[in-house]
Amino acid sequence: MNDELTEVLAWLQGHPLTYTLAALAGLVLTAWLANWVTRHILLRGLRRLVSATALAKSPELTPLGVIGRLANVVPALVLAIGVRLVPGLPAAVATVVENVASAFIVLTVALALSGTLNLVNALYQRRPDAHLRPIKGYIQVVKIAVYVIAAILVVASLVDRSPLILLSGLGAMAAVLLLIFQDTLLSLVASVQLSSNDMVRVGDWIEMPQLNADGDVIDIALHTVKVQNWDKTITNIPTKRLISDSFRNWRGMREAGGRRIKRSLFLDQQSIRFLTDEERHRLDRFALLDGYLPAKEAELEAWNASLPGGERDIVNRRRVTNIGTFRAYVDRYLRKHPGIHQQMTLMVRQLAPTSDGLPLELYCFTNTTAWVAYEGIQSDIFDHLLAILPEFGLRVFQHPSGADMRALGEHLPALSGVPAPPVL
Questions:
Q1: Res. 413 pLDDT band, cuts 50 70 90
Q2: In Å, how far from its chain's centre is CA 14?
Q3: How far is CA 128 from CA 123, 206, 337, in A?
Q4: What's the CA gap between 60 and 153, in Å, rounded?
Q5: What CA–CA distance (Å, rounded) separates 124 from 62?
Q6: Which residues in 334-406 belong to E strands, given as ranges?
Q7: Diameter over CA atoms, the chain
Q8: 382 phi, psi to nearest 5 deg
Q9: pLDDT tens digits for range 20-75
Q10: Helices in 207-291 by DSSP H: which ranges?
C-alpha cells in the first residue's frame, strides 16, 4: 500500500499541473465533507435536542439559526488554511482565495452576531415588563456597530491590508460619517430620552395630529415608532419627532381608570324662566330632586325675608328658575349613575352665553376607559337629558332646518290672508 502511494506521488510530482489540480480537488472535497459533517450530524443533533425542549414551541427563540450560520465558517476555514498547502499553486491565487475566505468568515460571523442580538431581543420581549423599557433601539445600534466593524474587516481582508490602515483614514472622514449617520445619531439620542423619561411604551395610545397619528404604539425601533391608527392604518413616526414635537399620550387616562366626559347642552335662552307654583309642585315628583326644592325655597324665603319692606316687590325677590333646577337634577343624576366615577371631578356648570344658546356643560369621568363602553355611557346620559328637558320647560337651541322653513312658508300666507301656492 505504501509502495503504491509512493508511486502515485512520484508520478504526480512528474506532472505538476495534474498534481496541483488533484490537490485542489482534494481541498474542495475536504471542505465539502466538513460542511456535510457539520450540517448533517451536528445540526441534526441540535435540532433533535431542541425539539425535546420547550423551545420547540417558540422557533424565534431557538439558537439553530445562529448555529446554522456559524456552520458556514467550517468549510471557509478549511479553504483558507488548506489553500497554502496546495503544491504548485501561484502565490497570487492562494492569496486571493485566502482573502476571500477570510472576508466570508468575517461576514458570516457578523450575520451570526446579528442573529444572536435578535435572539436576545426576543428573549427580552418575553419579560412581563419588556414594554416599559424596550431595547430594540439599542439592539439596532449594536447591529450597526457590528456591521461597520465587519465592513472594515472585510475590506481589509480583500485588499490584504491591516485594518488599522483603514481606521487611520477614518479620522479625515469623520465629518462625512457624521453627515451620513446624523439621522442615526439623532434617533439614538431620542431613543435614550424616550426610554429614560418613560415617555412612550409599546401599547400606549398616542395622538399626534401633525403626522396624522392617532392609535396604539405597536413597535419602538431606533429610527421609527409604529402607530396603528384606529382605522387600522399604520403611521411611522421618526423617533426624533417625538422629542422635537408635542404629542398626547393617553396612558395616564388608562392608568387612572376613568375617561373624561366634557360636553355641553346648548339651551335656548328664551326658554329660561322662573318656575311657577304649579311647576314646582309637578317637579316634586322627581325622586332625584327629593329635598332640593324645599331646601331651595327655604333658602330663598330666608333671603327675601331679610329684604326691607319697600323692596319686597316680586321683581326684587329671588325665585327658583327652571335652569337652576335642571342643573341640580343633572348633578344628582350623574352622582347616582352607575357608569360615572364618583371619586373624580364631577360638576355641572354654565359657560358664557353664545349665539348658539347657553352652554350647560357636563364635566365628569366614566368608571371605564374602554372606548365602546365609554361612548355608550356618554350617549345614554345625553339621551336621557335631551328627553327630560321639556319637563323643566327648557328647549335645546337648534338652527332652523329645511322643515322649519317649509312650516314657516305654510303659515305666512294664512297670516297675511294670501292663499298658499299649490304644492307641486
A1: low
A2: 74
A3: 11, 21, 36
A4: 29
A5: 14
A6: 347-350, 358-366
A7: 145
A8: -75, -30
A9: 676 677 777 877 787 777 777 776 666 666 665 655 455 555 666 667 777 777 77
A10: 241-244, 251-256, 277-283
Cell readout for 326 is 335642571
Mean pLDDT over 241-266 rounds to 91
CA angle at 334 for the pair 328 and 336, rounded to the nearest 5°: 105
Q: Helix H segments across 126-206?
A: 136-159, 163-170, 174-180, 182-196
CA distance 305 to 196: 65
Query: Beta strand 347-350 with 358-366: parallel, antiparallel or unpaired?
Result: antiparallel
- Placement of cell 309642585 in the chain: 281
Burial 300-332 (b: 16+ CB within 10 A, else e): eeeeeeeeeeeeeeeeeeeebbbbbbbbbbbbb
CA distances from 161 to 11, 101, 332, 358 (A): 39, 15, 85, 83
In 213-318, where does DSSP find H-type helix?
241-244, 251-256, 277-283, 292-305
This prediction's pTM = 0.59
**How far is CA 305 from its chain centroid?**
63
| Site of grid cell 350647560 | 360
Q: In angstroms, rounded to a whole number, what is the distance separating the alpha carbons of residues 313 and 316?
A: 6
Cβ-contact 87, 115 below 8 angstroms:
no
Secondary structure class of 239 (helix, strand, coil): coil
